[in-house]
User: Fold Nucleoplasmin-3 from Columbina picui.
Amino acid sequence: SHLLFPGCELTASTKSYTFQVDKEDDSDHVLALSVVCLRDGAKDECNVVEIVGRNHKNQEITVPVANLKLSCQPLLSLDNFKLQPPVTFRLAAGSGPVHLAGWHQIVHRDDGSFEEDDDLSEEDEEELPPIMPAKK
Assistant:
């Protein structure tokens, strides 16, 4: 199921926002970031947004994802950039306001829709036509 991520706003007074899920929850969660944009009242300065998360070795990493400036790039589409919660969004430079929006997906591990039937049985493999070389 997809849930809208209500988003967050980063400003000079609220420089970070952490999205986290209940540790007792045994579901898989994905947070997808769609848009980062400057809001009304933003100054013409560089506003750098970075993400603080964990890599595959469970080490904390920080990655800048947007450098917005009112006069040249007030909005950035991130095409549903997927993240594993917990994740922190931080305004590393600038005073904002910067708005972040996206969606949150919850996949219950006992839900059969999580598993896909990509495996072909031996019978199915035999029915596939052979791959022919391209004609020149």
Q: What stands out?
A: Residues 118 and 124 are 11 Å apart (CA to CA). The beta strands are 2-10, 16-19, 28-38, 47-54, 60-68, 75-83, 87-93, 98-107.
